[in-house]
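Q: What does the assembled structure look like for these inputs?
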Amino acid sequence: MRILKYALLGMLNKQDMTGYELMKLFEGALSEFWSVKHSQIYPELKRLTEEGMVTYTVEISGSVLEKKLYSITELGRQDFMKWLGQTHKMKATPKEEFRLQLFYSSALAPERQVYILENQLKQHNARLEHLKKNQSEFGEVPKRGTYEFSDYLVLLGAIRREEATCNWLKECIDMCKED
Amino acid sequence: MRILKYALLGMLNKQDMTGYELMKLFEGALSEFWSVKHSQIYPELKRLTEEGMVTYTVEISGSVLEKKLYSITELGRQDFMKWLGQTHKMKATPKEEFRLQLFYSSALAPERQVYILENQLKQHNARLEHLKKNQSEFGEVPKRGTYEFSDYLVLLGAIRREEATCNWLKECIDMCKED
DNA sequence: TAATAACATGTCAATACTTACATGTTATTA
DNA sequence: TAATAACATGTAAGTATTGACATGTTATTA
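A:
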């Protein structure tokens, strides 16, 4: 499917960037729905260069440190826009180790079952707080048509997802403790 | 991490099964949080056999068709229970192609942006209806401590997740159409 | 009874992803 | 100024996963 390809092209469609800067972006807001390691980014940029989807110029940082500033080409932009305009079928639900564990958890002592649920709730609550803090930094909702608006929509999606997860975990805990 | 290992051991901890039956289970309720292809199951069962985590007996179905009925061993059960009782750190958020697409969607015409959102909503609504149908087949909430109870909890989780996704998508559509 | 769907088990090649290895520069701060 | 963190770019080995290839049996239904 080469989705990483489109993740990178999408960024370079906004502005020229180095591999390192791309990596940093994937550690930030994007990490809520896509994660990549630098060991995957550099080879993919190399491949995209060979395919003519991107080009780069070598910039000197300081006195000797070379860095590659990548730009999207017209070919790359066309390929990206084609992907962006398409509707995509939902993929198989993502794997979640915790839900698998919960699925089998009847084999545990009831207190332990509640404990792992509470542990998970704690982790998701922490993430939710973090996301809400990010949201508050927006101040008001960005204008439609801007990239900030899209940033806001996906952040909202991450918040709604965490809220739902926290509420579900609380429901589970209540049901486990009932009378 | 070998999570597939625990997915398989967890099933065999409930009852003896063939590779084919395991595969069928991963196409059912489990598919909401774990998916596996048969091409991954058979080699993993082979490996677990070599490791002494499972054993099998060959059963004859009909007159000649051989099938392998797998059982968990004491070693396998101990390893599984160790995993089951542990608390696990949340993994990096699962990859979602649609959210990546939405993140870049400011480069699209506004009507197209709304169209892909509505398409996604349609797909998630369909899945939600399907999950609710499954829930209604439970009749009432199963008793705590049974495997049915765990089945119910993870189904509830899938429903809450889809509800949140649908609500978020509606929010996005409204925000795109505002005034 | 012939066709078809479901049962049943595997391998292989390719892709995707992670972890560790490997190296060196530049900016900050103690 | 010395240490440290951040910048910067790669490779290699191993694990995980998918999709295609490969084969044959049994049950159902038209």
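Residues 1-4, 35-37, 39-40, 61-66 of chain B lie near DNA strand D (CB under 10 Å from a C1').
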